[in-house]
Structures are given as C-alpha cells and as structure tokens.
Amino acid sequence: MSLPAPIYQLHSPCSSCNLAELCLPADLSAHELRKLDELSTVKRSFSRSDYLYRSGDKFRSLFAIHSGSFKTQILHEDGREQVTGFQMAGEIIGLDAISTDIHACDAVALESCVVCELPFNKLEELSREIPLLQRHLHKIMSREIVRDQGIMLLLGSMRAEERLAVFLLNLSQRLAARGLSATQFQLRMSRHEIGSYLGLKLETVSRAFSHFQSERLINVKVRTVEILDLAGLQACLNNTR
Amino acid sequence: MSLPAPIYQLHSPCSSCNLAELCLPADLSAHELRKLDELSTVKRSFSRSDYLYRSGDKFRSLFAIHSGSFKTQILHEDGREQVTGFQMAGEIIGLDAISTDIHACDAVALESCVVCELPFNKLEELSREIPLLQRHLHKIMSREIVRDQGIMLLLGSMRAEERLAVFLLNLSQRLAARGLSATQFQLRMSRHEIGSYLGLKLETVSRAFSHFQSERLINVKVRTVEILDLAGLQACLNNTR
DNA sequence: AAAGTGGTTTGATATATGTCAAAAATCGTG
DNA sequence: CACGATTTTTGACATATATCAAACCACTTT
For burial by CB atoms within 10 Å, which of A230, B4, B138, B219 has the most? Predict the structure, then answer.
C-alpha cells in the first residue's frame, strides 16, 4: 500500500465531526450514530503531492476528506493523463476501486490534507444494519455517476471558455457549501491540471482566464481568483455554438 | 411515469434467466436465489425510439436489459445534447437516478427491447439480507463510475480516430462477451448518436469510418461493420499526439 | 539577495475538427 | 414500386484550439 504511516492517529468518531452533514445521512438515531462510530478509525495527514492511493493498489477502504483537497487522475500507458476530479473536505474518494478491488486511478494531495479511512468491509456491514446508511452510500455512488456524466457533457459539447466557467462556478458553489467565500478563493491546482481536467491545453486555460478578466467577469492573479460577476459567468453557458 | 403499459407481462425469475451471469453475482446459494426471485416481476417491451424513462421522472426502479439496446442521453436546456452511453443486454440502467430520486437522463430504445424492472426498495432490502448481492450492486455502480471516467479520458485527450477506435473495440468486446461475433455486427445507432457520444460531429465520425476502411482496418457499409484488423485498431491508440 | 526552478502569460502559427452544402444512399410507407 | 424523408458520405472552407517559443513571474534554496 502506498499510505504513509499515520502522522498522527486520532480516534475520531464520525458522530462528533463537524463535517458530518456532508459525509453522513441526516436523521440517524442516537443508537445508529453510536454504531457508526465503530467505523471511524484513524486520521492520516498528507502533504502536497503525496499519494493517498495509486492506480493498481489493492482496495480496502474508502476515504473521507477531512481537510485539504485532492486530485484524482488516470495515467494511460502512452503518457496521456486525465484528471478525473478535484475533491475537497467532506467528499468521499475511492469509489472507482470497488468494481475490481483495485484502485483505478491515483489520488494526489494538492495541499496539506487530513483524511479519514473508512474500511469498506466495515462500511458494508454497517450499511446492512443501518438502512439509512445503506441508502446514503448508494446516493454517494450515484452522485459520482451524475457528476461524471456532467463532465462528459462538458468535455463532449462545450467550448473552452464554457468549460472554464463551469469549472469556476462549480468550485464557487462547493466552497460556499462549506461556509467559505463563493467569490474569492485560491486555486489549489495548476493551469496544467485544470487543463487536463477540462480537456484543454494549459495555454488555452490561461487565455480563457485572461479573457474573463478582460471582460470583468473575474479578477485572476495566478492562483488567486475573485469572481466579479457570477451571473455573467453563468451567461457564458447559454451561448450555444 | 413514462412507461408504456407492459405489452406482455411475464413473471420471470432471475434464477432461470440466461443472462444471470451478466446481471447477478456468482456463487449464490439455492436459498439466496429463491429469495432473489421475489425481485423479478415483470418484463416490458419497447420499440425503437420508445423512452424507458425520461429525465425528471420519479425514480422507482433500476432496469435490467433483457434484450435489445438503449442509449442514455442528457439534454441541456440550451439544446446541447450528450449521449452518455449505449447499453445492451445484461446491463443495468438507471443508476444515476438514485442520487436524487429523479432520473437525470433519458433512456431511449435503439431497437426492439425487453426490460426487467427491478424495484429499488426491494433491491436494497434484499441486498441487506444477501451480502453477495449487496457487494454485487456496489460493484455495478462502481463499474459505471470507472466506465464514465474512461470516457472522460477519451473525450479529454483522444483524437477523433482514436475515439472511434475505442468505441468500436469496446462494442466488439461487449458483443463477444455475449457470445456474438466480435468482428461482424450491426450498429444500432446513427452517426449523429455516435458523434454525440464521442464528442464529435457526425461528419467527423463518417470520415473516420471511411478512413479506417481505406486503411483496411474495417469494412463499413452504413451500419454494417466488419472489423478486419483488431490489432490494427488497437494500434491507433498508441499514436500519441 | 542571487540563482535556479517550475508555473504562467502572451504571441505567432499550424492543424484537427467544425461548418456549410450538395449529392448519394437508405429506409419507411402508402 | 415509388415517393418522400432521413441518414450518410464527401468536398470546400472556416475556426477553435493546439503547438511552439519566448518572456515573465513567483517561490525555494543557498
């Protein structure tokens, strides 16, 4: 396994986690919450560019991101790479590995991160006993499918600037859901990584950023982004080609 | 709901279905198989261009395709469309709807089809009682995630001819898994639908077909395809740009 | 503070794919 | 079988994005 030794081990019950509303189903009974604490085991820390797992690793656990953010990527033998997502606190990562018991992509920390390991056997066992948890797990997997299909739409039928607008609006909305600013944030990923995610070359990403700035939709200075006109960005999407 | 009245209703136990090896987990006990037959209810027939479900429909059931094939598509309000997949016998369809209890895409029959309805409540109940079934359901969902991410790679970083090669090889392999010819088959979808799936215009798809033919990799006459050189098609993928 | 390194921006140019158009082939239907 | 409607093919041309290159900037290391 590619996990570094846990830098600090905190026994951290899910029931008292401040991210519970993102990770867990609502409406669990006290009894169910207590049961669920069987699950939460250890938190692990990662530094920028550490691997949480690698493609080919044996699958044992899903991971809940407690803080920080990751990218997931597929590396094709011929050198092609595709970033398949950027994940942040409260999101569950590793779902692709369930199908074959082998991780199908790499997960790489974009900054300092803390992650909760969720042993999958245990999760399945608990979800047999707690129907709400079962349903929740299904919803999380289904949500990932919907997300991926949204990206297929983006990659299959949107132009460069539309893709970047979708990307920025999505980031904005997820940050807001975490109580952070929807309009001012630091990008944790490079132009190259954004390009890989959006199916564009890094120069094209950079030009699109510059163009948005010249249109007064955003201010951007390298990785610092301020959205000036959310509605204007939205409007980019309606210009069908 | 958009389902037509079942044209014929056959009570058809999964345990005796010839597609069981595609739909069901291996190694179920006789007892478990018997339980599973609680699930299988009714088969429904569809004709070409019938909707199995539409985006926005209330979610109640997954569907197992018994015969025929479907496309799934997202229609964006601005008229953009994206075909997100082509599904054939033995495949399970509707997973995207679990996340919100509302179908997120349309499923349209590409030919005459027969479909088994799998009420999702029942499926969850059974999968709490049959751990192998639970695991199987998880694997099916995870497989869909992996599939979608493969398409992201295709859309994000492959050229037109590579995309078509991937498409043809994938079809070939799935047909072979169903005991059909890996090298001779009828396409059930139009150039436009293939293009939508691959993020290309129909003219580009048509040109790529013609080019493969001129290279003696395939014979293609409208919707009749014969693959002459499987290895040659594979080799298309290694020409990194 | 200087030097090095990697990331970013911008410009000039090339190219793959899109667009538009017309003809050919195929399919469905009376 | 013929008609119209639809799909497919092919060509000529347009364009969005990629490629190549250089300068610039920001961060790390010494």
Answer: B138
